[in-house]
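Running this now, will post back.
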Amino acid sequence: MSDSESQSSQSSAPSQHDTHDHGHSQHPHSQSQSQPQAPPGRPSFVLESTEPFPLPAGHIPKIKTFRLAGSGFRIVLVDVPGPLCAATVVVPTISDNHKGLPHTLEHLVFCGSKTYPDRGFLDYLATRCLSTGTNAFTAEDHTAYEIATAGSDGMIEILPVFLDHILNPTLRDRQFMTEVFHVNHEAKNQGVVYCEMASRENTEADLLDLHLRQMLYGPESPYAFECGGLTKDIAHLTNEEIIAYHSRFYRLDNLTVIICGPMNPQTLFDKLASHPEIFVEKPIVGDQSPAPFIKSWPMSGGPGEIESRTVKFPSAEDDVGSIGFGWRGPPSEDMDTIVALDVLFRYLHENAASPLAQEFTERPDPYASHIDVEVKGFVQTALVIVFSGVPYFGGQSKSDARSDVDMNSDDGEDDGSDSPDDDEDGYEDEDEDMESGDDDDDDDDDDDDDGDSDDDGSDDDDEDEGRTARRDLFEPNVMYGLFRAVIQKFVSDGFGEPGGMASTIKRHRRKILEGLEEDPHDSIAAYLVPDITRHFLAESSTLNDTRVQGGKPKFATRTKVFDILDKLEKKGDDYWQALASNWLLNAPVREVRMEPSASLAAETEAKEQQDIADRAAYYGKSGLERLKKEVELALQENQVNITDEIKARFPPVPDASRAPALRAATETITLDAFDTRSPFASCMVVRTDTAFVSLRLGLNTGQIPSDLRPYLVLFQELLFQTPLLLPSTAASSAGASKTIAMDYRDVARYASEVFVSHEAGVGFNNDIWSAAWLSDVFMLSATTEKPDWERMVRFLSQAVLFAEFSEERLVSITKNLLSNLSETKRDGGTMLNALTTRLCCSRHHAKSDAAPVASGGGAGKGAKTKTKSVGKKGVKIVSKTAKTAKTGKPEQQAVTAPATAPAADAGGEANYAPESNDAPISVFTQQRFLRHILQKCKDGKASQVAAKLNQLRRALIDPQPSKLPSFARIAVPMDFSLSATSPTSNADLVADWLRIWSSELAKYKQRQSPKGKKRGMVDTSLTPTTAVSPNKDGKNSDGTADGAHALPLPFPFPRTPFSFKHLDSRIGRSVALPVGGLSTSFLSQFVECDVLQPIPHPDFFPTMLLAEILSRTEGPLYSAVRGQGFAYGASLSVYLWHGQLSLDVYDSSEPHRALIAIYGILDSLFTEAGFADQCSLFNMETARASVAYKWVSECGTADGVVATALRAGLRGFNSLDEHRRHVERLYMVTQDDLRRVLQSHFAKFLDPKQRATVLVTVPGAKTKELVAAFASGRDGAAVADHRWTTDLRVVEMKDLALPVVLD
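Update: finished.
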């Protein structure tokens, strides 16, 4: 619908950005850059269309599209509730080669504009506008520039300057050298973009994505090229090509700005009008042809005809690979078909009962460990299904030689450059993860283990136990034949469950609503982008909305998704069968088989070393010296230099407290006041503006014996994917309770029906092999819609209490876990996490609970999942992001020889602390342990495994007093009530949850009673209760329950901060782990730093603020490490829960030089000049604004409010209000406070005795080179300074294997 009214920008007082001649004299090329001239008249914006878009919690914002009069420039405003205002500037961009022109340009945009040429100006301003800085990513058909602020005031200030950088970048040659590509004085290829793509282009996911796109769209399509660039082509790119590319694509007519959040349109338009440089029309440089568009050529092949390609990729292990299939999808405007295909894919793969899961993953001999599906939102969409963790036996494929390609192929092109590099590759792809499970049957044995012990399971026989009986899955057409049979069965037989597609459509609707509530800003922008790219790049559209057709854009086709789902609910089975037949059976298909190669990793590294030697010979000594001087000049020119004159022009920092906030109320209720024997000590109730109700149970693991802890991984993966044996309400004639067997497929279906989402795992943010924090607790959680409150609570309780662990499920889940583990070991960031955890076999290791005010860590600033693209400050990747873990490790600095594997002591005890979960669930424990589980099942002893799992469950739900408490968290809408006629108090909510839990617990107890002794039950701990009610109001006036606490209270949760005494002295304090298949290194160094408690801790905010000053975008670490090409990024982060301060360097080509550069920065802070420069009042104020944004953004969505409330309670805050008041102390930090924490915490990095170092790197010569470099300290130092040296001990995977009790 279009509204006829219009809005025009009005005159406003000149902003302090109106004069832009400052700083030009500081830039060598500024004399040649003329100032843009304002166009005649003032720009005005016309309201072009208005579309409603219902959000969860009853809010229905309008999507309003405003067009600049006489231009194609549009601003789309969406009034999303909450404090955050997020902008995405979308530029349609395409590629016709592998040079990465859109990606390299995206990086250079941030180096300065012709109006604001000073590097760093943009991000300083962004930070001072209550943000963490700008960000961007590049996809195949668009580039997106992003900024989010707390409130709209900052957005109004930063957006015109951001647009100026996008439209009028400086694009100087020396910016190209540092940001894109250069050869350094050691003949190594460097440059931020070059190193970024070098770390990605040979990965399994990127290679698969690129080759599948090439096969789907043909060699001439923009979708067939790597928009991020391939390194061999980046090495031949010139700055002139980038300038011409910018001139052609980056025109105001091509831009669309999406703003989600609070915003006054007229205020924004007035601000933009005061920046005439944005609206200048510029001539096209170079290619004068009309605006490009994407032409889709027909695919070759008849119905169901397949073309295949085999691609090898480097990998540390070659036991599993992946196989991807692709089809051309409908055009992007055909939303009815796109939504229908999304629903069909959900039906086919969503849970363990789904048809594809049943055929491929849920079987005793899995053909894959997980399945990813996606409808790619290109102008002509693509349907993609990827089977990962496919067992590979090596060398059996006999593919057509014309289709098969090697990772290093160059498509026959000769590389005739100075730098003889020759890598081929791919870029990134994103899919959604799926839970996996397996076959069927119940089997529960009550016997305890017999003490039987296996040696290991790591020999060849046992390795084969973790793999499929089929050895031909990588043969041509084998996997496709299996897939096709599943689809043909569906087409011929229809749905195998009652209700057809109706229940799937309901689940799909709920998942969309959940995504909109969890991240409305990114979700809405993602809904709008395909319409934008279609308008600018499609050759034609049935909506007649493309630029080629002269049509007006329709930017809200995806807002009709709920209306389309309403229509689909009325479709019969024949519609869905025909849909599957037309798109998946009767259309040509492309297949890419990704085969792992352990030898290829070594060959790649050897080739890189040879290329360096060849380049060194080519340039010679004098040439390398010349290169060194050129790079030094480039680095000097590109330094951040914000002068006092420039600082005076910055606007005041907005008041973060003015940002609108979502409603929220919390209450913590102690459960001693309730008549129940539950294991829970307290329950937190959170009310906020949410559309859902949720329950999280945190079960303490303090009572679990050490021999049971390795079973936690298997236990968490089995829940919701294993049969249930439920008590019946009826009784047999003999008086005994009846039971109802629920097949695991029915469990999976019912879980999908009742829950919108659910989770089981150790700690917060569990990724199977590690937890981000609070690994002392086993988490169960579920979310559902309001009417399903009771069903959610009851089924969540039943899932843990009545799970049956059958042999079939044990075998299937264990094999899938082993496949997942093999894939995990290919990821550098994940292995860094695992290695740091391994060093400290105590209770607190993995550190992903970085304080929201600390910078980054992991995959990089701005790194996001769920989008396939490369970005300036973070790669938006689907593959697992680097979750930088932290711990520490023991002193053993002089040792560089490989370690020997630590052995269990004579009694066979594991060497991790009794209450630790991090070590038992780590990759170094689980590989051997899971192979042992398979061997037990093979030997007919699955009942012993089931008995261990039953013991583990009993220990979790045993309410006997423990060192660690259990807790619950309930989250509901503000006005949620259990009754339609009267309000429900928080105490009533808690009582209702406990009523259901106690009812199910009583049934569980009754079933255990006859054989309680045999099952190891402590009968007195599980006395059933029949009524649950609060005594009086449930609490005393001080918030505590009546009487003495039988259980320890969880708020705050007891914690033990990191200490170096936790380190495993047998491994060493400084460790390097070579990982095959990597092309870059990952480094982490950490020290003790406990500033969380007592609250308020005097060092809390000073430590946060100093870390932010050093780590912010364009700050000291950013410039010293990324600016010099040593690594893609670096940061200092405070991990509050674990009590650690961490220095992280990721995707690094020169980790030693990166670390030395950071040491130099820290060392300079101990001088008056250095401290005054880095910790000036201006820099403190700038960093404070960034910290303030992070605290505001924590509660920027309903999901964020709920998570923040629980985290704050566990840390020791009594309420969200107290938590917010605590943030006010941020504004009380002084320079003296910074000096104090610099000395007490940050100085530890310069003392080898107080720091621990972990490096995950490239094997072979690179490892030896780095060990020597770290040991030498600073380059060119006459005398080695021990503060700057690190003696790394090189270890192998086998050296890190943790001993585990094998019964």
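Residues 167 and 250 are 6 Å apart (CA to CA). More later if anyone needs it.
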